[in-house]
Amino acid sequence: MHIEPPREEWLNRRLKLQQMMKSQGLSGCLVTQNVGIYYYTGSMQTGYLFVPAVEESTYYVRRSVARALSESNVKVAELGSFRNFGRQLEADYPELFGATVSEGSLPSSFSSVPLIGTDLDVMPTQLYFRLTEAVPQAKLTDASGLLRQARSVKTPYEIARIERAAEAVAQALDVGCERLHEGMTELELMATIERELRSHGHIGLMRMRGYNQEIMTGVVAAGDAAAEPTYFDGPTGGRGLSPAAPQSASLRPIGRNEPILIDIGCCIDGYVIDQTRTAVIGELSPELRAAYETAEAIIRRAEQELKPGAIPEQIYAEALMMAEAAGLSSNFMGYGRDQVKFLGHGIGLEIDEWPVLAKGFRDPLEAGMTIAVEPKFTFPGVGVVGIENTYVITETGCRALTVSPEGIYSKQHS
Amino acid sequence: MHIEPPREEWLNRRLKLQQMMKSQGLSGCLVTQNVGIYYYTGSMQTGYLFVPAVEESTYYVRRSVARALSESNVKVAELGSFRNFGRQLEADYPELFGATVSEGSLPSSFSSVPLIGTDLDVMPTQLYFRLTEAVPQAKLTDASGLLRQARSVKTPYEIARIERAAEAVAQALDVGCERLHEGMTELELMATIERELRSHGHIGLMRMRGYNQEIMTGVVAAGDAAAEPTYFDGPTGGRGLSPAAPQSASLRPIGRNEPILIDIGCCIDGYVIDQTRTAVIGELSPELRAAYETAEAIIRRAEQELKPGAIPEQIYAEALMMAEAAGLSSNFMGYGRDQVKFLGHGIGLEIDEWPVLAKGFRDPLEAGMTIAVEPKFTFPGVGVVGIENTYVITETGCRALTVSPEGIYSKQHS
Prior knowledge:
2 copies of one chain form a homodimer. By secondary structure, the first copy, chain A, is α+β, with helices and mostly antiparallel strands. The two termini of chain A are 35 Å apart. Chain A is built from 12 helices and 17 strands. Chain A folds into 2 domains: 8-150, Creatinase/prolidase N-terminal domain (Creatine Amidinohydrolase, Chain A, domain 1), CATH 3.40.350.10; 156-411, Creatinase/methionine aminopeptidase superfamily (Creatine Amidinohydrolase, Alpha-Beta Complex), CATH 3.90.230. Chain A has helices spanning 8-23, 34-41, 65-71, 85-92, 94-97, 125-134, 144-150, 156-179, 186-199, 223-226, 286-305, 312-325, and strands spanning 28-31, 46-52, 58-63, 75-78, 115-118, 139-142, 218-222, 260-268, 271-281, 342-346, 353-358, 370-373, 376-379, 383-386, 389-393, 398-400, 409-411. At the A-B interface, helix 3, helix 6 and helix 9 of A face helix 3, helix 6 and helix 9 of B. Chains A, B: It comes from Cohnella soli. Chains A, B: Residues 231-250 are annotated as: Disordered.
C-alpha cells in the first residue's frame, strides 16, 4: 500500500517550514507529535524531530532506532538520556544553543536564548515541563498554528494518496449498499464497510488532532439514532454502542423509509479521506428529500467558491444563508444547541486539518489545499440527510477527490 | 452491549478519589480527559469534571449538554464562556475558590489558593495555559499518578465488562484460526478477526493513554515481519502497512512452519482486553517451541506470584531471571536494543493502565487489579512466539479473564 514519494519531497517540506519559521522569528521547531514527525521524516518512531531555521534537521529517536534508520529521510541520532537532551542539542547545534548557558559565562540576556516553536496544541503538559527542564538552552513557544498551516497545502504525492483512500471508500460504500437490507443493524452495515476498507489497505485507525476527539471509521447511523447529538466535533454524532463510545453505529436495526447516513473515511498510507452519502430502503419523505436537495445545492455553490483566493469564512457564511433561505437554519450542521459552526475542514494525515470553512478563517485558500465539505441537516427523532465530498483546490477552482456517485442511494427491495 | 452499573458505582468511585486527594493535600481534581470523565460520570461528552475534596462534583459540559444530561450520574452544568470558567467554579464552590481573588481584597497568600490536581500527563500544554488563565483562583498541579492509581483497582462491574471483551476475543480468535491458510496475508487474517470482534460489539477503537501511542486491534504478524521492531510500547511491533502505520499486520503472506503471533484485543462498553496466542501452519522449529515453552513457564510462575501484597517489580525480575536461565535474555520482550522493560501492564478503560510489572513499581498488588501478562520472545528474521493472558487479582491469588485455550495453535492442513 505504501508508495515512496519523490526523494525531494521530504526536503521541500522542511525547506518550506524553515521559510515560515524564519518569518516568525523562530530559531527552530521541535516536533514531538508522531504525525508531525512522519510528515517531515517519512518515519513515525518514538522521538523528537528538531528542524533548525537553517542547517540540517535531526531526528532524535528513542525507539526503534533501527526502524528509524531504515525509514528516515532525515539524519537519525539516538536520543540519549532525556535529561541531557539539551546538551545533546547543544553539541549538535553549537551555534544555536551553545551561547546561552555555558558555565562561568555571564548570564545570557533573554534575547540570546533561541526561541523554539513546538506543537503545544497536542504535547502533554507533563512532557512540556520535562522538556523545559531538559532543554534550558532554549525557550519553547507555541508553533501549533504554524505547523498546521505548513501542512495545509498538499503536494501532488499527498493528493494521490488521498485519492487512493477515496477509491477505497467508494468501493466499500458499494459493498455496503449492496448488502444493505431492512433489519440489518447499523453496526452490521458499518462492520461490512470496515471489512472492505481493511482489504483495501485501511490502516485500522483514522487520526484526529483534537484533544479527546476520536473517530471510528466515520458515522453509519439511521433514523432517530443518527440524529442523536454527541461530543464528536462534526455535524453528526449517532447513538453509538455505549456511553463509553457515544458516536457512530449502534445496534439499532435499519428500517424502511428512514434516512441512512453513511459518513465514512479510511486511512491509507497515512492519508485520510472523508465522504458522506445518504441512503434509504424505500423512500424519504418530501421534507427530507427537500433538505437533501438543499445540501446538494450548498455543495454545488461551495464548488464554485472553492478556488485560490477565496476566504473560508465567506464560504461558510454563504452556506448559512442558503440554509436559512430554505427555512432550515436550526437543522443545519446539527440541531439547535448541538450545531457545529463550520461547513468543512482540511484533511490529510489528520481528519481535522486546516483550513476550516468557519468564522475566523480569513486566510485565502491556496492551490493544493484539500478540504472536506459536508452540508448536513439534522431532524431530531427522524434522522440526518446530507452529502460530503473532499476537494483539492486547483489553480483555477477545485476538483473532487471523492468519486462515489451523488444523489440519494435508494434501495427499493431489501 | 452496554450494561448500566449499580447506581452506587459512580458515587463510590468519586468517594474513593476524594479520600485519595485529601491525603495528598488537594482541594479538588479537575478531570479533562474523556476516559477519566467517563470513569466518574458515566458520560463522555466534551467538557471538564470537577471533583472537590468534599461536596458534590459538577460536570461542566460544552457539547452535547443534552447527551450529558441523559447519561451523567453527576450534576451537569453547561460550560459558559471558557474565559469565565474560574468565575463559574467560584459561583458553584464559593468556599473553595471564593477567598482568593475578590477585587479590592488584599492579595491572597499562596497557601490560601486551592491546589487542584489534574491530568497533566494527557492534557495538551495549550489547554493547560488556557486553564491557568481562565481559573486564576486555583493552582493546578499534576495528579496524573493519583488518577491512574485510583482506577487501578477494578469493581466487579468493571471486571465483568473485561470478561465480556475476553469472550469476544476468544470467539474472534477461533474464527481467525479456522480461516487461517497458507498464503493468506497478515492483513486478511487481522481483518477477519476484526470483523468478528465488531459483530460482538467492539467499539472500533482501543484507547491508550501514552502520547503518540496507538493500537490497531493488536498485532497480527508472522515470521520475520512480526519480529520487526517499532515504536509501539510493547514487546511486539510488526511491519505494518506503511511507515505511516508502522506496526501490526502487513501485506506479507503467511507461510508454513513460521510462528504467527495473534496478539489481539477489543473494547466493549469501554473496557479493553488483551490476549496473545501463537499459531503455526505446519510445525515450529525446536528452538521456537522451546522459547514458547519458556513463555508458558514464565506465565505459570507469574500466576503463582500474582496476589495481594506481591511487588510488581519483583515479578518482572523473576521473569528476567527465567529468560536468562533459558539463554533467551536478548530475545525477551523484544530483541536487543528494542526490548521493552516490562512483563505486563494494567488494563481497563485503557490498555496501558497501572500497575506495570516493571522496575520502579513497588506498591503491592491489590485485589481487583487487572493485569495483562505477556512473556514473548523475538527472533529477528524468524518471528515472535509467546503468550498473553489478562488476570484479575483475587483475595488469595489471581484468576484469568482471558479464556482461549493455551498452547501452540497448530494447523496441519490449510
